[in-house]
């Protein structure tokens, strides 16, 4: 049977890049793209780009206006009937990723949205794989070694993003008995390790935003002790690993931490990024409590372009074991590059686009 794919989250950065990698590495008879109505025009432009840069043709793509927060994904009944007999692979990436997202929005998209995608998946008679994009941070405030086989461990959560992704992953795990699932838990996604390309300057880029604004300060201190590990993973590693693990039989029924197997501490990351970007070294330590107090002010957050919630990741001493991912990727030549080796590609892209408002989150 020919492979027919269904994606949510298109034309978002990761979903678009995943489709781009897919058509280069796997035979895709057809690709269905569930797109919010307001993004249809953008999706059409992205499909044109994909066709122009590959051997695929327009007839291999179908953009379906829909909404994961609605029953049946808000697809017309006749379209749902038509495609359910064809689809072999589902990739569910649609979610809200903002650390400061309000609870009601996060729940509606991340939890109810996943519930509706699960219901759709259960109607597919020829399904070979359902790949769900979770996050390593479903571990919440847990510290110590976090295993890929663990989920419900009485943890609490640092924000509504984490808690709703946890609830959504529980829903996906609940259907894994009847559906061939693969759950992907990335670390904090950063730009391409080769080109530096990224869609948003969040995550590790909050540090660059900070350094850029305070570069003229006579002293720039460390933020807290910084002894927690920073798990920032380039998007190209996540894409390659996801596609591989979503097509090999060993991936069925497994959860994978696509995290850095050799992470640096936040203190080390802070220092090396400052050195590379400003050619300076940190002096002294600013207590995190004081930094959070400053970022509690909207004017400070907006000026620095830094979310207060990002500071929580300086203190949570979690170590993400990625044994299953490492083992099942053996022989594929897919590996997570060393963080320090790829800083050189991050900085030119950031410098080129740092004044582009579409590259920054809207800080409230």
UniProtKB/TrEMBL annotation:
SUPFAM superfamilies with a match to the protein in the record: NAD(P)-binding Rossmann-fold domains
Superkingdom: Bacteria
Domain Thioester reductase (TE): from-to ranges: 8-241
Gene Ontology molecular function: any one: alcohol-forming very long-chain fatty acyl-CoA reductase activity
One biological process term in Gene Ontology: long-chain fatty-acyl-CoA metabolic process
Pfam families: NAD_binding_4
InterPro entries: FAR, FAR_NAD-bd, NAD(P)-bd_dom_sf
Protein name: 3-beta hydroxysteroid dehydrogenase
Protein source organism: Priestia koreensis
């Amino acid at each position: 049977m020919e492979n027919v794919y269904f994606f949510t989250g298109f034309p978002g950065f990761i979903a678009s890049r995943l489709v781009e990698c897919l058509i280069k590495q796997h035979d895709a008879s057809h690709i269905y793209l569930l797109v919010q109505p307001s993004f249809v025009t953008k999706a059409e432009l992205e499909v044109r780009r994909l066709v122009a840069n590959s051997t695929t043709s327009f007839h291999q793509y179908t953009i379906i206006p829909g909404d994961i927060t609605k029953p049946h994904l808000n697809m017309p009944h006749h379209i749902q009937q038509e495609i359910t007999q064809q689809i072999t692979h589902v990739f569910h990436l649609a979610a809200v990723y903002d650390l400061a997202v309000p609870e009601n929005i996060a729940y509606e998209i991340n939890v109810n949205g996943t519930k509706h995608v699960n219901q759709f998946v259960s109607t597919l008679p020829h399904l070979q794989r359902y790949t769900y994009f979770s996050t390593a941070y479903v571990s919440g405030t847990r510290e110590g070694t976090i295993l890929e086989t663990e989920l419900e461990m009485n943890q609490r959560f640092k924000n509504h993003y984490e808690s709703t992704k946890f609830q959504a992953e529980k829903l996906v795990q609940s259907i894994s008995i009847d559906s061939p699932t693969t759950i992907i838990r990335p670390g904090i996604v950063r730009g391409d390790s080769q080109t530096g390309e990224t869609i948003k300057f969040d995550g590790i880029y909050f540090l660059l935003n900070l350094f850029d604004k305070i570069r003229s300060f006579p002293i720039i201190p460390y933020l807290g002790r910084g002894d927690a590990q920073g798990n920032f993973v380039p998007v190209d590693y996540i894409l390659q690993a996801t596609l591989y693990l979503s097509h090999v039989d060993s991936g069925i029924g497994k959860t994978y931490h696509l995290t850095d197997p050799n992470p640096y501490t936040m203190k080390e990351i802070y220092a090396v990024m400052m050195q590379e970007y400003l050619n300076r070294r940190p002096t002294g330590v600013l207590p995190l409590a004081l930094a959070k107090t400053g970022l509690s002010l909207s004017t400070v957050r907006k000026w620095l372009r830094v979310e207060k919630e990002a500071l929580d990741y300086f203190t949570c001493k979690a170590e993400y074991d990625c044994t299953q991912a490492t083992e099942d990727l053996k022989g594929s030549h897919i590996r997570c590059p060393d963080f320090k080796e790829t800083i050189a590609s991050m900085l030119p892209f950031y410098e080129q686009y740092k004044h582009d408002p579409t590259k920054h989150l809207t800080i409230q």
